[in-house]
Specification:
The complex is a heterodimer of chains A (280) and B (246).
Chain A lengths: L12 H19 L8 H6 L4 E6 L8 E2 L5 E2 L1 H13 L3 E6 L4 H7 L4 E2 L7 H4 L3 E2 L8 E6 L14 E5 L3 H9 L6 E5 L2 H9 L5 E5 H7 L8 E6 L13 E2 L4 H16 L2 H10 L7
Helix pairs in contact in A: 1-4, 3-9, 3-10
Chain B lengths: L8 H37 L3 H16 L2 H18 L9 H4 L2 H27 L2 H9 L4 H31 L11 H12 L3 H28 L20
Helix pairs in contact in B: 1-2, 1-5, 1-8, 2-5, 3-5, 5-7, 6-7, 7-9, 8-9
The chains are: A alpha/beta (280), B mainly alpha (246).
Chain lengths: 280, 246
């Protein structure tokens, strides 16, 4: 797995998710029938703290450890708001990302809350709450380039990070536009080739792109447009839950809705990303 | 094993594009690289001292560093420097310089030049000097001696080794997937990312590479058999074994 830069992790997001699914479906399949999972629902009603599983690898600004060693970040704060709303005590439980779905199924954690996209493949193994955030893809190009994607892409060179939802979107939705799509391993390689002029434009996660165009070296670049909703992007990011924990799923959904209505999510999003990515 | 994705025209297109790019890279790098190898070998044997030293230094650096590092060095390092030259983005070279194909062929050419140059140097040195002297005695000038006698004799000696180098070159090509070029490995990665199948696409491209290697070996074996001056061999179907000398 690539090591993400502490300040711009989210471009790695979808790639991690894709990898996560690949591993999780393999590993998860092995634990579906295991006996552990069934006792869990009972434990939760006993008033024990809910264990919120996050990736043990920091994933700033979503989840990371602050200077005093405590976990913080957009999703950690949002999780605590959701738990307050439910009136439950919660415990952040770092877990290896690739084994996070098996951990949930085995009962070591009760929820997964770490930018996990709701995908069809994952839904076969676990349940999801309603989505709590969604980031579209954003096109970035030089200010001097007069372009309004997805119009006028013919003959242009577009860079995307491979194994991301943006790459899937670009390959599926833009294939007839005449654009030349280049796939890179790392998000930063895409950014560098845009800044050096090898790429005419790039398509990447909006959070990462908002951060990119604020850099001094990217002063001549701007976000041209965001990609429309497309099946490649899925429904957004939700909290992963065990399929048998229906009561908990309902509570979580109600809490997410309340947190959204009170504007807590939007406030956190503006603070961490400078843009509102909350759904609802 | 699920090979259902093979019928998806999306993936077929990527695989074919990847195959074509792979073959182009192999052809261009092999021809340019072997040409460079002749220059490198001669520079080290006969070149004036600064040239010989340069060739030795280049050979040492290329042979002493990983190919992937070189690829990154040229694409992300040298490429960036070239892009900084004022006005270059409007020049006719820009189309070439922004294309990863250029950097890939540059890297592979240097690599083949360095490795095969060493092989060729050894072969050139092992041609008995008496043969060259005989050529001179027959009235050939030094230039003719080199092109018509010395080099063909050396190539004859090291052809099987050069075949091995070409196979190694073919199998280095998947590295270009890291500099945003569509090759077979990148096509396989796309399929993996979208279908969550890891082994099937990799197995497919492994099979394609095996097939390409077999075809390449057969072709170069024919060159070995028919290279001027090679001893006639018994015409038995021995595509992989050593040709039996009569």
């Amino acid at each position: 797995m690539t090591v993400s830069h502490p300040l711009r992790p989210s471009a790695d997001l979808a790639r991690r998710l894709a990898l996560g699914v690949a591993l999780a479906t393999t590993l998860g399949a092995a634990t579906i029938g295991s006996a552990h999972a069934t006792d869990q629902a009972a434990n939760q009603d006993a008033g024990e703290p809910l264990k919120i599983g996050i990736s043990a690898e920091p994933y700033p600004p979503f989840t990371y450890t602050s200077s005093d060693g405590d976990w913080t970040g957009f999703e950690v704060e949002l999780a605590s708001a959701i738990c307050d709303q439910m009136g439950r005590e919660c415990e952040i439980t770092p877990t290896g990302w690739s084994g996070i779905i098996p951990s949930l199924k085995a009962g070591r954690i009760d929820m997964i809350m770490n930018s996990m996209s709701i995908t069809e493949k994952r839904l076969r193994v676990i349940d999801f709450s309603s989505p709590y955030y969604f980031t579209p893809g954003a096109y970035v190009a030089a200010r001097s380039l007069d372009i309004e994607p997805p119009e006028g892409l013919d003959g242009k060179v577009l860079g995307v990070q491979s194994a991301t939802t943006n790459a899937t979107y670009a390959r599926r939705a833009l294939r007839d536009s005449g654009v030349d799509i280049r796939l890179y391993d790392q998000a930063e390689q895409v950014n560098r080739d845009l800044l050096s002029g090898r790429l005419d434009l790039i398509l990447a996660d909006e959070i990462a792109m908002t951060e990119l165009v604020e850099r001094d070296e990217a002063a001549d670049f701007e976000i041209k447009a965001t990609a429309p909703h497309h099946e490649a992007y899925g429904e957004g990011v939700g909290i992963g839950l065990r399929q048998e924990d229906d009561a908990l799923t309902e509570d979580v959904n109600a809490a997410i809705e309340a947190v959204n209505q009170q504007g807590i999510c939007s406030e956190l999003s503006e603070r961490y990303f400078g843009t509102d990515v909350c759904v609802g | 094993m699920d090979f259902g994705w093979l019928s998806d025209p999306f993936y077929q297109e990527y695989l074919i594009e990847g195959l074509i790019n792979t073959l182009w890279l192999l052809l261009v790098s092999a021809i340019a690289g072997l040409t460079l190898a002749i220059g490198m070998a001669m520079a080290r044997i006969r070149g004036p001292r600064p040239l010989a030293w340069t060739a030795t230094a280049v050979t040492s650096v290329i042979r002493g560093t990983p190919l992937l590092v070189q690829l990154f060095f040229f694409y992300y390092g040298v490429g960036r420097l070239l892009e900084g030259i004022p006005g270059i983005q409007d020049s006719i070279f820009w189309g070439l310089l922004r294309d990863p194909f250029f950097y890939a062929t540059l890297t592979f050419t240097l690599s083949v030049g360095a490795y095969s140059g060493e092989i060729l140097r050894g072969a050139l040195l092992s041609v008995p000097p008496g043969e060259r002297e005989a050529g001179r005695a027959f009235g050939l000038n030094p230039f003719q001696v080199f092109w018509r006698l010395w080099l063909p004799r050396a190539v004859q000696l090291c052809l099987p080794t050069l075949t091995g180098e070409m196979i190694l070159l073919l199998k280095s090509i998947p590295l270009v997937s890291t500099i945003a070029m569509m090759d077979l490995l990148q096509a396989a990665n796309i399929i993996r990312d979208e279908t969550f199948l890891t082994y099937e696409p990799l197995l497919l491209i492994a099979a394609v590479y095996l097939l390409l290697t077999i075809v390449l070996t057969l072709c170069l074996r024919q060159v070995e058999h028919h290279f001027p001056g090679v001893q006639p061999v018994r015409r038995a179907w021995r595509p992989f074994g050593q040709p039996r000398r009569v």
